[in-house]
Model the fold of this input.
Amino acid sequence: MRWEVIALVATGVLVSFGCLVPNRYLPPLPNDKLLHFGAFALLMLLAGRFATGQGMLAGIALGLLVAGWVIECLQNWVPGRAFSWPDLAANAAGIACAGMLTGTLMNFF
Done:
């Protein structure tokens, strides 16, 4: 269980850093929305391992969605970055897809 906590925290820090670094320090990104989708799907998969039931899984999903919204709001103060509804939608899609997968797997194990 310890490696799961470390992986979740490290991924959360890396995603937050990647979302809040000024654009001038980022390499050219092939598809920003795909990166948002993948990052938040990974966060959901890692955090979903701690869920003991469907209600807790839904709470984790809501918490990640709020975290993504906060990150988008904070981007207004980062040079070259701004709030983006499409980014938030990509976050939500990644959370939803990974949440459905996690919920389905939870029923089997």
